[in-house]
Write a structure and sequence with these properties.
Layout lengths: L2 H13 L4 H11 L6 H19 L3 H27 L6 H34 L1 H21 L2 H20 L2 H24 L2 H7 L1
């Protein structure tokens, strides 16, 4: 782990300390510590989107309600949860799980940084490749968004995000998508490697 990653982990650990009980509980559900947790995740997500489909709120109303929920949670959770759970709830096992969660969140930030660095490098060294790749992806997304119902598409994306940690923890993701993951990882490493030798990249172009 690099120094930048260590600083990010320490910073996140301090910022999310008031949420540690909630994070551990949610993480337990997302990684499928028990066999019925996937059913809970799918049912909760499906009921939530079914409610949105039934109510049909406007986009402004939906974002406003989401903002209110986030604001209330940010204010109440750090104050209420430690009082409800009590000091006896937190154990060494919970602390280790909390550290793993923080590292996972830090890794997500690292992946985001890696992707932005790759795109920036591609834009500088391979502008044609960058233009074709980005434009093609945006056209594909626009076509999918125009073909598939927006609420259904959002439901599929959210459900995939919710199920991803469990699929990864149980090895299902690696078993069925190992080749795809390796291809994407190799592409990112190749772009990062190209950024280290801009002269060679320009010759290739």
């Amino acid at each position: 782990m690099t120094q930048d990653q260590e600083r990010r982990v320490k910073s996140l650990s301090r910022e999310l300390e008031g949420w540690r009980e909630v994070l551990v509980g949610v993480n337990s559900i997302l990684v499928w510590d028990k066999q019925y947790y996937p059913a809970i995740s799918i049912s909760f997500t499906s009921l939530l989107f079914l409610f949105i489909w039934y109510v049909e709120p406007s986009m402004l109303t939906l974002f406003s309600i989401l903002g209110i929920i986030i604001t209330l949670a940010d204010f109440l959770v750090p104050q209420v949860v430690p009082w409800v759970c009590g000091a006896h709830f937190w154990t060494g096992a919970h602390e280790r799980r909390y550290e793993e969660i923080i590292k996972a969140i830090a890794n997500i930030f690292g992946i985001y940084t890696c992707i932005t660095t790759t795109l920036t490098t591609m834009k500088t060294n391979k502008p044609r490749t960058y233009f074709v790749s980005v434009t093609g992806m945006l056209i594909l997304c626009a076509w999918i968004g125009n073909t598939v119902n927006n609420l259904l598409l959002t439901y599929i994306i959210v459900l995939a995000v919710v199920l991803f940690p469990g699929l990864k923890a149980t090895g299902i993701l690696h078993k069925y998508f190992a080749s795809t993951i390796s291809t994407v990882a190799g592409f990112i490493k190749g772009q990062l490697g190209a950024s280290e030798d801009p002269t060679q990249s320009k010759k290739k172009d």
